[in-house]
Amino acid sequence: MNHYVALDGKLWRTLWLLLVRPGMLVTEYIAGRRQRYIGPLKLYLTFSVIFFVLASLTPAAEVRVAVALDPGSKEARELEQALEQMPQGLRQAVERTLAEAERNTAQPARTAREIGDRLQAQAPRAMFLLLPAFAGLSLFAFRRRPQHYAVHLMLALHAHAVAFLLLILRLALPAAIGGKLVLVLPLWLLFAFRHLFGGRWWALAARAGFVSASYALLLVAAIAAGVLLFAATPA
Asked: Same domain for 19 and 123?
């Protein structure tokens, strides 16, 4: 297990540099000073494993779904109008989802747990597969400053390690505070860009915003695809 998850003294030295000097681990790795720190992939695996172990021990919030509209009510008419404006394929998918939700109102907690378990099982693979996409977005943002793709891939691994660390902290914090941690990652990325590539702060902020927003859209698309696949899977 220790071959894949770092729990030795290097972890704390690496963690300090990762959080206090964003981007510095990449330059240290390129300079050949690799023995002092945990490698990018092992660091990513460390925090991802810790998060998913803790998440599996955390009770999932109960989600209740109720579909009960009076056919003659204003809400029912507005829903019908919205459905009529959708493309036929999308409308049929929404109608099937609503019909399934109405049939399962007696077992909402079970359905919510099943969806949560399915997404949690697919999340590690999805985030790992999106690592090259994050690196590609970073490479594209700095396309006028030629850099090896490996530099951006190492940065992507470190950014994902920070993301998992924030998710770990979110598990232990109240929702009102934990929800604001999402703002930390773009700031971390901004300072990492500053260290690695230099440039003006406003230009770096624009690039960090582009990479963060684009990657967030990819995550939303992955989550939506997971939900649709679950809904389409026969019971």
From this structure: yes
CA–CA distance, 214 with 137 (Å, rounded to integer): 8
| DSSP-derived 3-state class of residue 168 | helix
d(CA 165, CA 47) in angstroms, rounded, equals 6
Enclosing H/E stretch for 99: helix 88-103
Longest dimension (CA), the chain: 71
What averages of pLDDT result for each successive group of 10 residues across the chain (235 residues)?
Answer: 56 90 93 89 88 74 46 63 61 63 53 58 72 94 86 95 89 76 90 94 95 88 71 58
Could you tell me the two tokens for 56? Answer: 């599996």
Task: Enter the pTM of the model.
Answer: 0.70
In a domain, 163, yes or no: yes
Q: Are residues 90 and 186 in the same domain?
A: no
